[in-house]
Amino acid sequence: TKPEKAVRLATFARLIEPSELTENTIFEKAETLAANLDEGKNIDDLAKELGYEVKLALNLKELDENVPGLGNQRQIVTWAFNNDREVGDSKRFDVEVGGKRSYAVVALSEKTEKGGLVLSSAVIEEVLLKLTKEKKAAIIKQKMNGNTLDEIAKNSNTNVRMASSVTLASPLISGVGNEPMVVGAMSTLAIDKISDKIEGEKGVFVVKVIRREAPTKLENYNTFSKREANKLKAKTYQIFRVLKETADVVDNRSKFF
Q1: Distance, CA of 215 to CA of 174 (rounded, Å)
Q2: Distance, CA of 135 to CA of 186 (rounded, Å)
Q3: What are phi and psi of 8, to 5 degrees?
Q4: Which residues contact 90 (CB under 8 A, 6 or more apart)?
């Protein structure tokens, strides 16, 4: 037979760990940074000078366990919410990130009142989207004038559309999407009466109900009753959440955990 070439392969693996000198150097750098902060120096200026990266942990709550960028660091949250803590306080923490022992130098940059919120980019974007939606709705409403649907559609540069098989259980409007506010208004609107302007998820609507079908009578409602009972059970969490929000309870768990 024709000889075939073969390769003998040996794999050599070695765990690379920092030396004692490297660990001591990193510790000294963390301690030096913490000491400079204690002297009142600015963390951003120090980071720029030393080539470090400053990460913000916005809107931390008293019972949070995770710190953005560091993972589960309950000790840092507990420190930040200590009653004696003041803006500008700082501390070095021994942390473990990705299974590796590290150091984090933390500085308390701001406090917010209970229920307050620091405007992060995500919050700003959410507010801008809401304000933009409200502004667009106001502009559209100004154009929606007329005594009939055809007149309103003409003034709004759109067309009158028909929607069938619309139910409260599934508030979908064909060609539009999910519109619970609009469908809810339809359910109470008198037949052949033009509604007021309704702000929905995808736009501003004016509707007229031309036919409403009564639900079919059943000989036995056991299946329906069981389904509704299961829906109520599923809302238990929502009920407890409302009770929690309305009850005058002081949450002191953060002092013990």
Answers
A1: 21
A2: 24
A3: -100, 120
A4: 34, 37, 38, 43, 105, 106, 107, 108
Separation CA 131–CA 145 (nearest Å): 23
Q: Evaluate if residue 243 carries a pLDDT over 90.
A: no
Residue 96's alpha-carbon distances to 1, 78, 92, 102, in angstroms, are 59, 17, 13, 6
Residues 166 and 186 sit within 8 Å (Cβ to Cβ)? yes
pLDDT in tens, 6-15: 888 898 888 8
Residue with tokens 């980071």: 47
Q: Which residues are paired to 194 by β-bridges?
A: 208
- The model carries a pTM of 0.48
Cα angle, residue 93 at apex, residues 82 and 63 outer, rounded to 5°? 40
> What does the pLDDT average to over 174-179?
90
| CA 192/CA 256 separation, integer angstroms | 63
Mean pLDDT estimate for the chain = 86
Cα distance between the two ends of the chain: 74
Structure-token pair, residue 215: 């639900």
Closest CA to 163 of 202, 219, 110, 121: 202
Q: What percent of the chain is helix, strand and coil (3-state, nearest 5)?
A: 40, 10, 50
Read off the pLDDT of residues 78-123 as tens digits, 9 standing for 90 and up.
999 888 888 889 999 998 877 788 899 999 988 877 766 666 666 6
